[in-house]
Amino acid sequence: MNGADALIATLVANEVTACFANPGTSEMQFVAALDGVPAMRPVLCQFEGVATGAADGYGRIAEKPACTLLHLGPGYGNGVANLHNARRAYTPIVNVVGDHATYHRQYDAPLNSDIATLVKPNSIWAKSADSPETVASLTAEAVAASYGPPGGPVSLILPADSAWLPASGEPVLAQKAVRPAPSGEAVDAAARAIRAAKKPVILLGGQACSAEAIHQAGRLQAVGVTIYTDTFVARQPRGAGGFAPKKMQYFGELALAELEGVDLMVFAGTTMPVAFFAYPNRPSVLVPDGCSTLSLSARAEDAVAGLAALADALGAPATGQVQALRLPDAAPSGALNAHLAGASIARHMPECAIICDDAVTSGAGVSAATLTARPHDVLALTGGAIGIGLPLAIGAAVAAPDRKVLSLNGDGAAMYTIQALWTMARENLDITVVVFANYTYRILNIEMQRTGAGEAGPSARKLLDLGEPNIDFVSVARGLGLPAVSCSTAEDFDKAFAGAMGQRGPMFIEAKI
Question: What is the pTM assigned to this prediction?
Answer without folding.
Answer: 0.96
